[in-house]
Amino acid sequence: MAVPIAVLDCDLLLYGRGHRTLDRFKLEDVTDEYLVSMYGFPRQFIYYLVDLLGASLSRPTQRSRAISPETQILAALGFYTSGSFQTRMGDAIGISQASMSRCVANVTEALVERASHFIHFPEDEASMQRLKDDFYGLAGMPGVLGVIDCIHVAIKAPNAEDLSYVNRKGLHSLNCLMVCDARGMLLSAETHWLGSLKDSTVLQQSALSSQFEAGMHKDGWLLGDSSFFLRTWLMTPLHILETPAEYRYNMAHSATHNVIERTFRTIRSRFRCLDGSKGTLQYSPEKSSHIILACCVLHNISLEHGLDVWSSPATGQMEQPEEEYEQMESLDSEADHVRQELLLTHFS
Protein backbone atom coordinates (compact mmCIF):
# COMPACT_ATOMS: atom_id res chain seq x y z
CA MET A 1 0.00 0.00 0.00
CA ALA A 2 1.33 3.45 -0.88
CA VAL A 3 2.27 5.51 2.16
CA PRO A 4 1.58 9.27 1.90
CA ILE A 5 4.87 11.10 2.12
CA ALA A 6 3.49 13.58 4.65
CA VAL A 7 3.31 10.88 7.34
CA LEU A 8 6.82 9.52 6.85
CA ASP A 9 9.35 10.07 9.59
CA CYS A 10 10.60 13.67 9.36
CA ASP A 11 14.14 12.82 10.41
CA LEU A 12 14.25 10.13 7.74
CA LEU A 13 13.14 12.67 5.16
CA LEU A 14 15.63 15.31 6.20
CA TYR A 15 18.62 13.14 7.11
CA GLY A 16 17.87 9.81 5.44
CA ARG A 17 19.91 6.62 5.58
CA GLY A 18 22.63 7.12 3.02
CA HIS A 19 23.07 9.89 0.51
CA ARG A 20 19.94 9.81 -1.62
CA THR A 21 17.91 12.92 -2.31
CA LEU A 22 14.16 13.34 -2.54
CA ASP A 23 13.47 14.97 -5.90
CA ARG A 24 9.69 15.00 -5.93
CA PHE A 25 9.56 18.57 -7.24
CA LYS A 26 11.48 19.83 -10.27
CA LEU A 27 11.75 23.48 -11.19
CA GLU A 28 11.70 22.76 -14.91
CA ASP A 29 8.27 21.13 -14.60
CA VAL A 30 6.43 24.29 -13.53
CA THR A 31 6.02 27.83 -14.86
CA ASP A 32 7.65 31.00 -13.54
CA GLU A 33 4.18 32.26 -12.67
CA TYR A 34 3.62 29.27 -10.42
CA LEU A 35 6.99 29.68 -8.73
CA VAL A 36 6.37 33.37 -8.06
CA SER A 37 2.88 32.69 -6.70
CA MET A 38 4.06 29.89 -4.39
CA TYR A 39 7.63 30.86 -3.49
CA GLY A 40 7.87 34.57 -4.34
CA PHE A 41 10.67 34.35 -6.91
CA PRO A 42 11.21 33.23 -10.52
CA ARG A 43 13.15 30.20 -11.70
CA GLN A 44 16.50 31.84 -12.49
CA PHE A 45 16.62 33.48 -9.07
CA ILE A 46 16.01 30.11 -7.40
CA TYR A 47 18.70 28.48 -9.54
CA TYR A 48 21.11 31.18 -8.39
CA LEU A 49 20.31 30.42 -4.74
CA VAL A 50 20.89 26.71 -5.36
CA ASP A 51 24.36 27.51 -6.75
CA LEU A 52 25.07 29.94 -3.89
CA LEU A 53 23.86 27.80 -1.00
CA GLY A 54 24.10 24.26 -2.34
CA ALA A 55 27.41 23.43 -0.69
CA SER A 56 26.20 24.61 2.72
CA LEU A 57 22.97 22.66 2.42
CA SER A 58 24.83 19.47 1.46
CA ARG A 59 27.64 19.62 3.97
CA PRO A 60 29.54 16.34 4.49
CA THR A 61 29.12 16.84 8.24
CA GLN A 62 25.38 16.38 7.90
CA ARG A 63 24.12 12.86 8.35
CA SER A 64 22.72 12.77 4.85
CA ARG A 65 21.44 14.77 1.92
CA ALA A 66 17.98 13.27 1.85
CA ILE A 67 16.32 16.57 0.96
CA SER A 68 18.02 18.28 -1.94
CA PRO A 69 19.29 21.87 -1.63
CA GLU A 70 16.74 22.87 -4.27
CA THR A 71 13.85 21.56 -2.18
CA GLN A 72 15.22 23.08 1.03
CA ILE A 73 15.43 26.47 -0.66
CA LEU A 74 11.88 26.22 -1.98
CA ALA A 75 10.63 25.36 1.50
CA ALA A 76 12.42 28.35 3.02
CA LEU A 77 11.28 30.78 0.33
CA GLY A 78 7.74 29.54 0.78
CA PHE A 79 7.89 30.35 4.48
CA TYR A 80 9.65 33.71 4.07
CA THR A 81 7.16 34.94 1.48
CA SER A 82 3.96 33.49 2.97
CA GLY A 83 4.65 33.60 6.71
CA SER A 84 3.34 30.10 7.39
CA PHE A 85 4.09 26.42 6.89
CA GLN A 86 1.17 25.69 4.60
CA THR A 87 0.21 22.07 4.05
CA ARG A 88 -0.30 22.61 0.33
CA MET A 89 3.20 24.03 0.00
CA GLY A 90 4.76 21.05 1.74
CA ASP A 91 2.66 18.70 -0.37
CA ALA A 92 3.82 20.46 -3.54
CA ILE A 93 7.50 19.76 -2.83
CA GLY A 94 6.88 16.43 -1.13
CA ILE A 95 7.83 17.08 2.51
CA SER A 96 6.03 17.48 5.82
CA GLN A 97 5.59 20.75 7.69
CA ALA A 98 8.07 19.60 10.32
CA SER A 99 10.66 18.96 7.64
CA MET A 100 9.89 22.37 6.14
CA SER A 101 10.76 23.92 9.49
CA ARG A 102 14.14 22.22 9.46
CA CYS A 103 14.70 23.36 5.88
CA VAL A 104 13.97 26.95 6.90
CA ALA A 105 16.54 26.67 9.68
CA ASN A 106 19.19 25.30 7.30
CA VAL A 107 18.63 27.91 4.60
CA THR A 108 18.41 30.73 7.13
CA GLU A 109 21.79 29.91 8.60
CA ALA A 110 23.33 29.54 5.14
CA LEU A 111 22.08 33.02 4.19
CA VAL A 112 23.20 34.57 7.50
CA GLU A 113 26.69 33.17 6.93
CA ARG A 114 26.83 35.19 3.70
CA ALA A 115 25.25 38.38 5.05
CA SER A 116 28.49 40.38 5.13
CA HIS A 117 29.06 39.61 1.45
CA PHE A 118 25.73 41.05 0.37
CA ILE A 119 25.08 43.76 3.00
CA HIS A 120 27.91 46.27 3.35
CA PHE A 121 29.04 49.77 2.50
CA PRO A 122 31.21 50.07 -0.60
CA GLU A 123 34.93 50.30 0.12
CA ASP A 124 36.36 52.18 -2.86
CA GLU A 125 36.09 55.94 -3.37
CA ALA A 126 34.40 55.67 -6.75
CA SER A 127 31.55 53.58 -5.32
CA MET A 128 31.16 55.93 -2.36
CA GLN A 129 30.90 58.85 -4.75
CA ARG A 130 28.21 57.02 -6.72
CA LEU A 131 26.26 56.66 -3.46
CA LYS A 132 26.36 60.42 -2.99
CA ASP A 133 25.52 61.15 -6.62
CA ASP A 134 22.53 58.83 -6.58
CA PHE A 135 21.13 60.43 -3.43
CA TYR A 136 21.82 63.94 -4.73
CA GLY A 137 19.78 63.09 -7.82
CA LEU A 138 16.70 62.39 -5.68
CA ALA A 139 16.19 65.78 -4.02
CA GLY A 140 19.46 67.72 -4.12
CA MET A 141 20.78 66.61 -0.72
CA PRO A 142 24.61 66.45 -0.94
CA GLY A 143 27.05 64.12 0.79
CA VAL A 144 24.56 61.38 1.68
CA LEU A 145 26.07 57.92 2.14
CA GLY A 146 22.83 56.25 3.24
CA VAL A 147 19.45 56.71 4.90
CA ILE A 148 18.88 55.13 8.29
CA ASP A 149 15.87 54.05 10.32
CA CYS A 150 14.59 51.33 12.63
CA ILE A 151 11.78 48.86 12.03
CA HIS A 152 10.07 46.61 14.57
CA VAL A 153 9.31 42.96 13.75
CA ALA A 154 6.88 41.16 16.05
CA ILE A 155 8.09 38.00 17.81
CA LYS A 156 6.53 35.64 20.31
CA ALA A 157 7.17 36.45 23.97
CA PRO A 158 10.41 34.74 25.08
CA ASN A 159 8.80 34.17 28.48
CA ALA A 160 6.17 35.77 30.64
CA GLU A 161 8.66 37.58 32.89
CA ASP A 162 10.95 39.05 30.22
CA LEU A 163 9.77 42.56 29.36
CA SER A 164 12.94 43.62 27.56
CA TYR A 165 11.38 42.85 24.17
CA VAL A 166 8.14 44.75 24.87
CA ASN A 167 7.96 47.92 22.77
CA ARG A 168 6.03 51.14 23.37
CA LYS A 169 2.88 49.56 21.90
CA GLY A 170 3.03 46.75 24.44
CA LEU A 171 4.03 44.15 21.82
CA HIS A 172 7.06 41.87 21.83
CA SER A 173 9.40 42.76 18.99
CA LEU A 174 12.93 43.07 17.71
CA ASN A 175 14.05 46.59 16.85
CA CYS A 176 16.07 46.37 13.63
CA LEU A 177 18.47 49.12 12.59
CA MET A 178 19.00 49.42 8.84
CA VAL A 179 20.67 51.66 6.27
CA CYS A 180 19.98 51.62 2.54
CA ASP A 181 21.19 53.38 -0.60
CA ALA A 182 19.13 55.34 -3.11
CA ARG A 183 17.98 52.13 -4.83
CA GLY A 184 16.83 50.49 -1.62
CA MET A 185 19.89 48.22 -1.38
CA LEU A 186 20.68 47.56 2.29
CA LEU A 187 24.13 48.74 3.38
CA SER A 188 23.77 47.74 7.04
CA ALA A 189 21.29 45.57 8.94
CA GLU A 190 21.40 44.90 12.69
CA THR A 191 18.37 42.78 13.46
CA HIS A 192 18.91 41.64 17.05
CA TRP A 193 18.08 44.68 19.21
CA LEU A 194 15.52 44.53 22.01
CA GLY A 195 12.09 45.90 21.17
CA SER A 196 12.06 48.00 24.35
CA LEU A 197 15.04 50.09 23.20
CA LYS A 198 14.52 53.49 21.62
CA ASP A 199 15.89 53.99 18.13
CA SER A 200 18.48 56.44 19.42
CA THR A 201 19.71 53.91 21.99
CA VAL A 202 19.95 51.17 19.38
CA LEU A 203 22.09 53.40 17.18
CA GLN A 204 24.26 54.51 20.09
CA GLN A 205 25.06 50.87 20.94
CA SER A 206 25.35 49.64 17.37
CA ALA A 207 28.33 48.46 15.35
CA LEU A 208 27.28 51.02 12.73
CA SER A 209 27.78 53.90 15.16
CA SER A 210 31.22 52.56 16.12
CA GLN A 211 32.23 52.49 12.46
CA PHE A 212 31.21 56.09 11.83
CA GLU A 213 32.64 57.36 15.11
CA ALA A 214 35.96 55.70 14.18
CA GLY A 215 35.97 57.55 10.86
CA MET A 216 35.56 54.50 8.64
CA HIS A 217 33.13 56.37 6.39
CA LYS A 218 34.44 59.92 5.96
CA ASP A 219 33.37 62.86 3.80
CA GLY A 220 29.67 62.22 4.08
CA TRP A 221 26.79 61.46 6.40
CA LEU A 222 23.71 59.41 6.93
CA LEU A 223 20.20 60.88 6.99
CA GLY A 224 17.98 59.91 9.92
CA ASP A 225 14.63 61.10 11.23
CA SER A 226 14.02 62.91 14.50
CA SER A 227 14.17 59.73 16.54
CA PHE A 228 17.96 59.98 16.31
CA PHE A 229 20.42 62.48 17.77
CA LEU A 230 22.20 64.86 15.43
CA ARG A 231 25.80 63.80 14.79
CA THR A 232 28.57 65.05 12.53
CA TRP A 233 27.91 61.92 10.47
CA LEU A 234 24.12 61.85 10.90
CA MET A 235 21.96 64.72 9.66
CA THR A 236 18.47 64.98 11.14
CA PRO A 237 15.55 67.33 10.31
CA LEU A 238 15.21 70.76 11.88
CA HIS A 239 12.36 71.08 14.36
CA ILE A 240 11.82 74.83 14.20
CA LEU A 241 11.83 76.32 10.70
CA GLU A 242 12.41 80.05 10.34
CA THR A 243 14.10 80.64 6.98
CA PRO A 244 13.51 79.52 3.37
CA ALA A 245 16.84 77.65 3.51
CA GLU A 246 15.65 75.65 6.51
CA TYR A 247 12.42 74.75 4.72
CA ARG A 248 14.38 73.66 1.64
CA TYR A 249 16.72 71.58 3.78
CA ASN A 250 13.84 69.78 5.51
CA MET A 251 12.03 69.14 2.23
CA ALA A 252 15.15 67.64 0.65
CA HIS A 253 15.83 65.63 3.81
CA SER A 254 12.29 64.20 3.88
CA ALA A 255 12.22 63.32 0.19
CA THR A 256 15.59 61.57 0.45
CA HIS A 257 14.90 59.76 3.72
CA ASN A 258 11.65 58.42 2.26
CA VAL A 259 13.70 55.83 0.37
CA ILE A 260 14.18 53.67 3.46
CA GLU A 261 10.51 53.89 4.39
CA ARG A 262 9.64 52.59 0.92
CA THR A 263 12.31 49.90 1.31
CA PHE A 264 10.78 48.75 4.59
CA ARG A 265 7.36 48.52 2.96
CA THR A 266 8.79 46.49 0.11
CA ILE A 267 10.64 44.07 2.39
CA ARG A 268 7.49 43.49 4.42
CA SER A 269 5.31 42.97 1.36
CA ARG A 270 7.79 40.55 -0.23
CA PHE A 271 8.57 38.66 2.99
CA ARG A 272 5.22 38.18 4.67
CA CYS A 273 6.77 36.36 7.62
CA LEU A 274 7.86 39.83 8.81
CA ASP A 275 4.71 41.88 8.30
CA GLY A 276 2.61 40.45 11.14
CA SER A 277 -0.28 39.45 8.88
CA LYS A 278 0.19 35.77 9.79
CA GLY A 279 1.06 36.48 13.42
CA THR A 280 4.39 36.90 15.14
CA LEU A 281 7.56 34.97 14.34
CA GLN A 282 7.22 31.83 16.45
CA TYR A 283 10.90 31.50 17.28
CA SER A 284 13.38 32.60 19.92
CA PRO A 285 14.72 36.15 19.58
CA GLU A 286 18.01 34.81 18.20
CA LYS A 287 16.36 32.65 15.54
CA SER A 288 13.91 35.43 14.69
CA SER A 289 16.82 37.82 14.25
CA HIS A 290 18.47 35.37 11.85
CA ILE A 291 15.27 34.99 9.82
CA ILE A 292 15.00 38.78 9.49
CA LEU A 293 18.63 39.01 8.41
CA ALA A 294 18.15 36.19 5.90
CA CYS A 295 15.26 38.12 4.36
CA CYS A 296 17.49 41.20 4.17
CA VAL A 297 20.11 39.18 2.28
CA LEU A 298 17.47 37.93 -0.14
CA HIS A 299 16.22 41.49 -0.60
CA ASN A 300 19.66 42.62 -1.73
CA ILE A 301 20.17 39.58 -3.96
CA SER A 302 16.82 40.27 -5.61
CA LEU A 303 17.93 43.82 -6.38
CA GLU A 304 21.17 42.54 -7.87
CA HIS A 305 19.06 40.33 -10.13
CA GLY A 306 16.95 43.22 -11.33
CA LEU A 307 13.78 42.42 -9.40
CA ASP A 308 12.12 45.79 -8.95
CA VAL A 309 12.35 46.90 -5.31
CA TRP A 310 9.21 49.05 -5.60
CA SER A 311 7.02 46.60 -7.52
CA SER A 312 5.48 44.67 -4.62
CA PRO A 313 2.07 45.84 -3.37
CA ALA A 314 1.71 47.15 0.16
CA THR A 315 0.28 44.78 2.76
CA GLY A 316 -0.94 44.96 6.31
CA GLN A 317 1.87 45.39 8.77
CA MET A 318 2.65 45.70 12.42
CA GLU A 319 2.01 49.21 13.71
CA GLN A 320 5.38 50.81 14.40
CA PRO A 321 5.94 52.27 17.88
CA GLU A 322 6.25 56.04 17.87
CA GLU A 323 9.46 57.54 19.21
CA GLU A 324 9.77 60.52 21.53
CA TYR A 325 11.70 63.23 19.74
CA GLU A 326 12.23 65.84 22.46
CA GLN A 327 15.46 67.84 22.48
CA MET A 328 17.46 65.82 20.00
CA GLU A 329 19.03 68.96 18.58
CA SER A 330 21.58 70.59 20.86
CA LEU A 331 23.57 67.68 22.24
CA ASP A 332 26.47 68.02 19.77
CA SER A 333 27.62 71.56 18.95
CA GLU A 334 30.06 70.32 16.30
CA ALA A 335 27.26 68.42 14.57
CA ASP A 336 25.05 71.51 14.71
CA HIS A 337 27.84 73.49 13.06
CA VAL A 338 28.14 70.89 10.28
CA ARG A 339 24.41 71.13 9.60
CA GLN A 340 24.49 74.92 9.58
CA GLU A 341 27.33 74.85 7.06
CA LEU A 342 25.27 72.48 4.94
CA LEU A 343 22.34 74.89 5.08
CA LEU A 344 24.48 77.88 4.10
CA THR A 345 26.39 76.11 1.36
CA HIS A 346 23.62 74.20 -0.39
CA PHE A 347 20.21 75.54 0.63
CA SER A 348 20.59 79.30 1.04
Question: Would you give an account of this structure?
Answer:
Helices cover 47% and strands 9% of the residues. It contains 13 helices and 5 strands. The protein has helices at residues 10-15, 32-39, 43-57, 69-82, 87-93, 97-113, 115-118, 125-139, 199-205, 207-213, 244-270, 285-304, 333-347; strands at 144-154, 173-180, 186-194, 221-223, 234-235. α3 crosses α4, α6 (97-113) crosses α12 and α8 crosses α11. The radius of gyration is 22 Å and the shape is globular.
What's a concise summary of this model?
The chain is of the alpha/beta class. Helices cover 47% and strands 9% of the residues.
Determine the N-to-C terminus distance: 82 Å
Number of strands: 5
Q: Radius of gyration, Cα only, in angstroms?
A: 22 Å
Strand content bin: 5-15%
Helix count, DSSP H or I runs of 4 or more residues: 13
Described by strand count, sense and barrel closure, the largest sheet is: 5 strands, mixed
- Give the neighbour order of strands across the main sheet: 3-2-1-4-5
Structural class: alpha/beta
In percent, how helical is the residue content?
Answer: 40-55%
**Uncertain spans:** 1-22, 312-316
Q: For the residues shown, what is the average pLDDT?
A: 85
Note the overall shape. globular
**Oligomer type:** single chain
Which sequence of SSEs, written as H and E, runs from N to C? HHHHHHHHEEEHHEEHHH
